[in-house]
Amino acid sequence: MDVMQVLHMNEGNGETSYAKNSMVQKKIMSIGKPIIEEAVLDFYCTNSPERFGIADLGCSSGPNTLLLVSEIMDTVCRKCCQMGCPPPEFLVFLNDLPLNDYNTLFRSLPAFYNTLKEDKGSGVGPCFVAGVPGSFYGRLFPRKSLHFVHSSSSLHWLSQVPPGLDSKTCPPLNKGKLFISKTSPPGVLSAYALQFQQDFTSFLNSRSEEIVPGGRMVLSFMGRRTTDPSTEKNCHQWEFLAQALQNMVIEGIVEEEKLDRFNAPYYAPSGEEIKAAIEREGSFMVDRLDILEVEWDGGSCNNQARNGMLIDHNLNGAHRVVKTIRAVVESMLANHFGREIMDELFRRYSHIVTDYMSTNRTTYDNVIVSMTRKSY
Ligand SMILES: C[S@@+](CC[C@H](N)C(=O)[O-])C[C@H]1O[C@@H](n2cnc3c(N)ncnc32)[C@H](O)[C@@H]1O
């Protein structure tokens, strides 16, 4: 699979779009907000640049896209006001893969500029927004042009399916599965771990060139608390999709070989794997690393409501979870299995998720790591 040519969130503003189905990612952003604020304020203790370069990596399109950029600008302007200095000019770079829905994103910019003017008036410096299509696993920006880099819900996507899994080995290494699972042989686990290490190192290497000494980076993405990547919690969504596809293989709707040949370019690392990679690469100092739990449906299902309402909550929650996952993974699955089976696949997946959510508490682990570019 050529990830650059295949991966994109569902475009537009329609029912199945990412824009309409990204509540859990919004929740993840709101959890990370205080950590971002802390990093910006800390940066301003020792720096006050005339021009402040911000990059949002894996920005997608929709209501989440400019949310944290606005927060970062807000925090900078408040701090400048406190210090009695003029706010900087903001250069905002919105990055994603080339197939991202930049049209919808650019159409939302006039409203963003208007809100800035109305809400902040002259309290905010001039702001210049640019789209930067390309992979964040390589260089995207000029040397020392960024003061703050942020990325949310994106770095769990690998640059490629780990080699060996994507090749036409016979028999297939990860038969009947889409990702690491309890039945995957150890070679599958190590191939994924190695791909993450290589990708994350390339990411850090590229950012180390682009971020000014003392500049900050806050990254938030799917992770895990356990050292074992094959725990149920880490694999549920891929496991459920695989179950739905296995049923379709049995009924002759999907070819068995097609299922055996698909592996997701995804990995949720442990805190230790992340720290080890940052230390080994050497350009950044970890200021803090937190692993936080987020409900599958973005936290709107209130598990304390232990009455008849709970069933409704869970049903609605499952419906939202399925739409969220579909908005994210459909481009990849449709490319491999064919667009024509997507409705049926997600109908079956929906039954499995609804059934599971009716009796289980369902959360993801999300890592937030805040770091500083070393000055040497
Ligand atoms: C789930 S969306 C997150 C969007 C937004 N940050 C949010 O939190 O709502 C993940 C985004 O990461 C992008 N992405 C994945 N791999 C990427 C890469 N190598 N370079 C740039 N963007 C990438 C995807 O295209 C997608 O738009």
UniProtKB/TrEMBL annotation:
Family matches, as SUPFAM superfamilies: S-adenosyl-L-methionine-dependent methyltransferases
GO MF annotations in UniProt: metal ion binding; methyltransferase activity
Transmembrane parts of this sequence: none
Alphabetically ordered keywords of this record: Magnesium, Metal-binding
Record flagged with keyword Metal-binding: yes
UniProt keyword Magnesium present: yes
Protein name per its UniProtKB record: Jasmonate O-methyltransferase-like
Native species: Nelumbo nucifera
